[in-house]
Amino acid sequence: MDKRMEASYELSLLIARSGKPHSIGEQLIKPAVGVVLKTVMGKDPNPVLSSIALSNDSVARRIDEMSTDVEDKLCSELRNTYFAIQLDESTLQDSEALLLCYVRFIHDHEMVEEMFARSLQTDTKGSSIFQLLKKYFNDKNIPMENILACATDGAPAMVGRHCGFIALLKNKVPSVFAIHCMVHRQHLVVKSLSPRLHTLLQIVIKAVNKIKASAQNDRLFRQLCQENDEQFVRLLLHTEVRWLSKGNCLTRFHAIFSTVVEFLSEVDTQLSEKVNAIKHDVAYLTDIFKMLNDVNKQLQGDHMTLIKAKKVIGAFITKAALYRETLSRRDMYHFPLLAQETAISDNELLVYCNHLEKIRGDMEERFRDMLELSMPAWVINPFKCTIQDVKRELQDEMSNLHNDDEAKARFLQHEYNKFWILERENTLQYGKRQNWHSLHHTWLKEDSALSWCC
């Protein structure tokens, strides 16, 4: 490829990654490169820059060509390997409905995650989503039987019993493993508040909006924070679609609570009194939402599996019961901000304990299917189990694995998921396709390493 053409593609890729308008190529990049060549190199930039196509249409065409090439490579991989999908439907600003499909598969000894998107021309029903995905797979010659697992957000269009996407997918691929997104489930638990705590949260949001909605109030509040030598000078807004924002908003609000009350006493006396009256509740919610945000973050990640997610959720359920028991005895070790408060009434403690019990019960109910999953011991450590511990159809392969000293050395060097990926690649490399269909395929199904937990 000509160097000038190559430069045009490289610059177009940078523009695409930055998310800037395509016209930035001629408006900024070319002049900037010209200044560098003329100032630093002492050369006339016109001969070079005039031969590099960076017009709006040229950049758009280059980006389309590169995206098509990337999509073709992705589809060629999906034709010959098992993979998991995660679907989400979203509506853009111009009311265009968009289906986002994330895929996860194994490539070059790694778990790879990619995405493609398609427009939904009419409605967003489960049947429409299924037909769109089916048509895309047929057009790209991707067997739908290669889908091992599918994660959705639990919307009726996705999980409807008869016409939902999952029901239609299972009619086509009966063995597919379907799961409701773990992070979404955890978010639904977080939204569950008692009437008192819900009212408290609304007061906090109203106070934040009172300060942030007015440019003058925001400036005056910032000046007051500086005068009081506060660590922060701004409050954070709560945004419902940003799942961590509730905890972040409360953390910042509590950190400068006294300054907030002082400022509101000048602009809204009634609201100031309400805020001052809920200081204990704010401290408790700040503590508990920090814990819930930590759980949310632990459930995220490129290589999250059901085994890891089960550990995170199970641990928090156990902790919630422990926190409720200790808090009922006025032991606030696990609630550092609440422990700083004085004169906490028995009625307040009862509200907090009931909320913790509600969280625990709600998590047990929403995650019941995952908590009841029985994970075979050989998935985590295949060398500590006996041959009799595995299913009959896997015993021959497990016997070979137990007597493979090289495999034992690889297991000591890597975590179990990486080990199984390496073993899978080795069996494919030596043409032992049957091994991949038995032992390694069972690992993927049991551990759901390919499935999306979030």
UniProtKB/TrEMBL annotation:
InterPro entries named among the record's database cross-references: RNaseH-like_sf (IPR012337)
Superkingdom of this protein's organism: Eukaryota
SUPFAM superfamilies reported in the protein's UniProt record: Ribonuclease H-like (SSF53098)
Name of the protein: Protein ZBED8
Organism: Holothuria leucospilota (Black long sea cucumber)
